[in-house]
Amino acid sequence: MGHLWLIGMMGSGKSTVGRRASGTLGLPFIDTDEAIELSTERTIEDIFAEGEAVFRDLERHVIAVISRLDDHVIATGGGAILDESNLATMTESGTTILLDADIATLTDRLRRSTHRPLLTSAEDLATILDTRAALYSAAADVTVDVTDRSIEDIANEVSTCRTM
Ligand code: S3P
């Protein structure tokens, strides 16, 4: 049937929702950031310190490797959609699900985030969302609104995409 690829901004809940949906569906879960950290034995911040391009190459590689596995629920990094080959890989290997959150929700959820190299201020978040909004929509087979909804509710909606 194919993978469920979760895409969306930092703070949209891809990892939490993905874990929950994977439990419901009985599918394994992978977080691409975690896979990158495990395979390189380095942190995302550490890799970003060498340049965003270094991180994006690793991200592209990990997404390509995961796409060839049996079906998984996958939480991608927020910038995975910036790379056209990632978009093709995700589309060819499953369903791409956008967790769509407004700026207020994202700001609130990321208030305590200290480990995201692209985020040093609230303005950064708004700028990134502006730049990416159209890309997220274009990449999504399905869009799930996550504003003011419980993790369980969102994960249930994500799980229904498995039967599509
Ligand atoms: C990024 C999002 C992060 C991580 C990296 C870059 C982005 O993942 O991949 O810091 O470009 O939006 P999360 O979306 O899981 O925070």
Short structural summary:
The protein is of the alpha/beta class.
Describe what you observe in this structure.
The chain is an alpha/beta fold and 164 residues long. 54% of the residues lie in helices and 13% in strands. Helix 2 crosses helix 4 and helix 4 (52-67) runs parallel beside helix 5. The longest helix has 18 residues, at 122-139. It is globular, with a radius of gyration of 15 Å. It binds shikimate-3-phosphate (S3P). Shikimate-3-phosphate binds at residues 10, 14, 33, 44, 77-79, 116-118.
Uncertain runs:
none
Mean of all residue-level pLDDT scores: 94
Number of strands: 5
Helix/sheet category: alpha/beta
Determine Rg (CA atoms, Å): 15 Å
- In terms of DSSP E residues, the strand content is 5-15%
The small-molecule ligands in this entry are: shikimate-3-phosphate
Shape: globular
- How many H/I helical runs? 8
Strand order of the largest sheet: 2-3-1-4-5
CA(first)-CA(last) distance: 9 Å
What is the topology?
Blueprint (H helix, E strand, L loop, with lengths): L2 E5 L6 H12 L3 E3 H9 L3 H5 L3 H16 L5 E3 L8 H10 E7 L2 H8 L11 H18 L2 E4 L5 H10 L4
Parallel strand pairs: 1-3, 1-4, 2-3, 4-5
Helix pairs in contact: 1-8, 2-4, 4-5
Features:
binds shikimate-3-phosphate, alpha/beta, 164 residues, 5 strands
